[in-house]
Task: inverse folding
């Protein structure tokens, strides 16, 4: 299923849950933003890190060949025991060569903290989409969770040392329970 990714202005009109806006449209480090609301209970659940093919919309957004292998990191950002965001990071081979090999060895370290503190890294594009229940990305994000509702997600295209990486963040319902400081 092809997702309908949209710009911020269109997504703002399409998003009825105002409480979600704070998270979905946050432009600085989402990790740090969630950490502040979790009152010290923030952690990362690493689901997998491996070489594999990207999904078709990721391949298209990164201008990759359809058979190009990428390094994919899948994780969940959690407040205590509650998964609040599913994160999927796509790194083409050219991105993880040389000095950037450390990107393949993050484990449970938050990638967002690193990207927003690195002067050689910048974000160029952000786009947003509703993630329907029957979508592969929804199934991946909600694996082992009891979530049967449509979700919102966003994609951010970053460049580190002039090489691209794509981060997709799917906002799980528990994100709305994060306390506000």
Result:
């Amino acid at each position: 299923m092809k997702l309908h990714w949209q710009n911020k202005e269109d997504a703002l009109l399409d998003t009825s849950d105002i409480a979600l806006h704070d998270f979905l449209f946050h432009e600085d480090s989402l990790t740090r933003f969630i950490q502040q609301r979790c009152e010290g209970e923030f952690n990362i659940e690493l689901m997998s890190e491996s070489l594999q093919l990207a999904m078709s919309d990721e391949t298209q957004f990164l201008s990759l060949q359809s058979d190009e292998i990428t390094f994919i990191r899948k994780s969940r950002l959690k407040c205590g025991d509650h998964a609040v965001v599913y994160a999927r990071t796509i790194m083409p081979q050219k991105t993880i060569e040389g000095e950037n090999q450390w990107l393949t060895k993050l484990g449970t370290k938050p990638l967002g903290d690193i990207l927003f503190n690195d002067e050689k890294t910048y974000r160029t594009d952000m786009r947003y989409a509703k993630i329907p229940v029957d979508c592969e990305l929804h199934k991946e994000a909600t694996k082992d969770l009891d979530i049967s509702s449509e979700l919102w997600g966003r994609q951010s295209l970053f460049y580190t040392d002039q090489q691209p990486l794509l981060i997709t963040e799917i906002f799980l319902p528990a994100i709305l329970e994060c306390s506000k400081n």
Q: What stands out?
A: The helical segments are 8-14, 18-24, 30-37, 56-61, 111-116, 136-141. Residues 30-37 form the longest helix (8 residues).
